[in-house]
Amino acid sequence: MESVRRSCCNRIAYQATKRGSPADCDCLYCRNFDAIGDAAYPAAFASFADTMGIDIAKTNEIVELGDFREGRVLYEGWFHVVGSIVEGPVPLDLTSSVGATWHHMTESFQVSLSRRRDLPFDELAAKDLVQLNFLSNVPWVLDEPYPG
Ligand SMILES: [Zn+2]
């Protein structure tokens, strides 16, 4: 497993930012993810994220991947940590998460680290960032049907 050296300003940035998908968006995919809330994340991830100064209610972005099966839907999303990867495998192409090592935390939740910096919050944009990517398979809980 990779390890990350982080700096202390992450929690402050997450408290300060006005952004945070999916609460920012009114589309069905984001509303479903928002309705799931903290249950989209295993407890071990939630406590790790808190240690890193991340507010899991404020993802940088989520993307619904169109993989709808048996009432469940797959999302990709990410958070940023101010710091750098100091150990462990990282993708050769540092702008890509392709080749990143995905770690299964549960059957329905995976994480990877990369040096991508997709849509950082303004409060973090000038810093060195590690991107904490996740894949989360969650139930479709809205009354409206999955739009396909
Ligand atoms: Zn949306």
Please provide a written account of the structure.
This protein has 148 residues and is α+β, with helices and mostly antiparallel strands. It is built from three helices and six strands; from the N terminus they run E-H-H-H-E-E-E-E-E. It has helices at 10-16, 28-36, 43-51, and strands at 3-6, 61-69, 72-87, 103-106, 109-114, 129-139. Strands 1, 2, 3, 4, 5 and 6 form a six-stranded antiparallel sheet that branches. The radius of gyration is 15 Å and the shape is globular. The termini are far apart. Residues 91-96 have low confidence and may be disordered. Zinc ion (ZN) binds at residues 22, 25, 27, 29-30.
How far apart, in Å, are the first and last alpha carbons? 36 Å
Low-pLDDT parts are 91-96
Q: What is the string of SSEs from the N terminus onward? A: EHHHEEEEE
Q: Per the principal axes of the C-alpha atoms, what is the gross shape? A: globular
Instruction: Tell me the number of strands.
Output: 6
Mean pLDDT: 84
Bound small molecules, by name, code or SMILES, are: zinc ion
What assembly state would you assign to the polypeptide chains in this entry?
A: single chain
Percentage of residues assigned to helices = 10-25%
Q: How much of the residues is beta strand, in percent?
A: 25-35%
Rg estimate, integer Å: 15 Å
Top keywords for this entry?
single chain; 148 residues; alpha+beta; six-stranded antiparallel beta sheet; 3 helices; globular; binds zinc ion
